[in-house]
Design a protein that fits this description.
Chain A contains eight helices and ten strands. With 224 residues, chain A is of the alpha/beta class. By secondary structure, chain B is α/β, with parallel strands linked by helices. In chain B, helix 2 packs parallel to helix 3 and helix 3 runs parallel beside helix 4. Chain B has one domain: Udp-n-acetylmuramoylalanyl-d-glutamate--2,6- Diaminopimelate Ligase, Chain: A, domain 1. Classes of the chains: A alpha/beta (224), B alpha/beta (111).
């Protein structure tokens, strides 16, 4: 997925904004931010942090600088083992026009030693939002790893593209519900989405939408 | 112990065979970062982690057989990765403790 490829797919789908949340790293957010800026599409940089509890959690920020600061802090607590591309794939860091400038050496598929509570504190210190990822999934979710949602940590919860919201809404009562594609390839980009009536796609608007629960989510996918 | 004998000991169903593989030790764990940090090679991993990343960790650690407890289903992408990487998969109705006890003639796996 090249930065330009993602942005043009977002444009085709008619979405007003999007976020890039690679596993454990925001190192490709500068490239995607630049492509989004050139295309005039709203973009939030972020990362999906795998916590010490082996739960996937999404961090969103207004600025690339904050997302990169979060990445550095996560990297400090990552295993020092070097990635084996044959097992986990290549991990290129690219420019906006898709030149490879570096290969990330850490194994980004692995978790970090930071707990959900520590990460929540750090995300909020950096002015970001913290979302429990794909809470409906049987692996790497707050429910699968912990049996529930830790209190006072998350700003919202995310449902995966196939989750039935009528089943999940009662289980996450009190939390705003988002749905996002979690796309790992271009075909999956924008297959599902979340909607809200906002004038700016930024952290403060999203925070307001989460607090007022004025977010609508797209229908789930039943086949793909 | 050979893979086939291990499957019998946990009264398991072989999902991906690794026949003839010699297994000398066992590690039991559901936290994959812990497994990667401590599990050695020529080993069996007793776990409930029924997903693709579990196979990646097994490949790095040198695990010959994964024993998936509580009869958790094995998704297609996990099965395919195991076939590709030469890691055997066995499912069993046993708990992690029961499966570990059933394999107690093997050594504890260390890195």
């Amino acid at each position: 997925m090249s930065p330009a490829g993602i942005v043009s797919r977002i444009q085709e789908a008619g979405l007003g904004g999007f976020a890039l949340t690679d596993h454990q790293s925001a190192r490709n957010t500068p490239a995607v931010a630049e492509c989004a800026r050139r295309a005039g599409i709203a973009f939030l940089p972020g990362l999906e942090v795998q916590t010490a509890e082996e739960v996937h959690t999404v961090c969103l920020f207004d600025t690339v600088a904050s997302a990169l600061a979060m990445t550095d802090w996560v990297y400090e607590a990552m295993p020092k083992r070097v990635n084996d591309p044959e097992t986990f794939g290549d991990q290129p860091v690219v420019t906006w026009d898709d030149d490879i400038v570096d290969m990330e050496w850490r194994i980004l598929a692995m978790g970090c030693r930071r707990t959900i509570e520590e990460i929540s504190k750090k995300v909020h210190e950096l002015g970001g939002l913290y979302i429990a990822a794909h809470v409906d999934r049987p692996n790497y979710s707050v429910f699968s790893a912990l049996g529930g949602i830790p209190e006072n940590c998350f700003d919202a919860v995310e449902l995966s593209r196939t989750a039935d919201s009528s089943i999940w809404a009662p289980k996450v009562e009190g939390y705003a519900i988002t749905r996002s594609s979690d796309a790992h390839n271009l075909d999956d980009v924008a297959k599902v989405w979340s909607e809200a009536d906002i004038t700016r796609f930024d952290i403060s608007s999203l925070k307001e939408v989460f607090l007022s629960k004025s977010l609508q989510i797209s229908p789930r996918l039943t086949k793909f | 112990m050979k893979f086939e004998e291990l499957a019998e000991k946990v009264q398991g169903t072989v999902i991906v065979p690794n026949n003839g593989a010699e297994i000398t030790s066992v590690y039991t764990g559901d936290l994959l970062s812990d497994v990667m940090g401590h599990c050695g090679d020529e080993s069996a991993l007793v776990t409930v982690q029924n997903h693709l990343n579990a196979i990646a960790v097994c490949t790095l650690a040198g695990v010959e057989a994964v024993v998936i407890c509580h009869s958790r289903p094995v998704p297609d992408d996990m099965r395919e990765a195991a076939e590709r990487e030469g890691v055997g998969i066995i499912t069993t109705a046993m708990s992690q403790f029961a499966a570990s006890v059933a394999l107690s003639s093997l050594e504890p796996s260390v890195k």
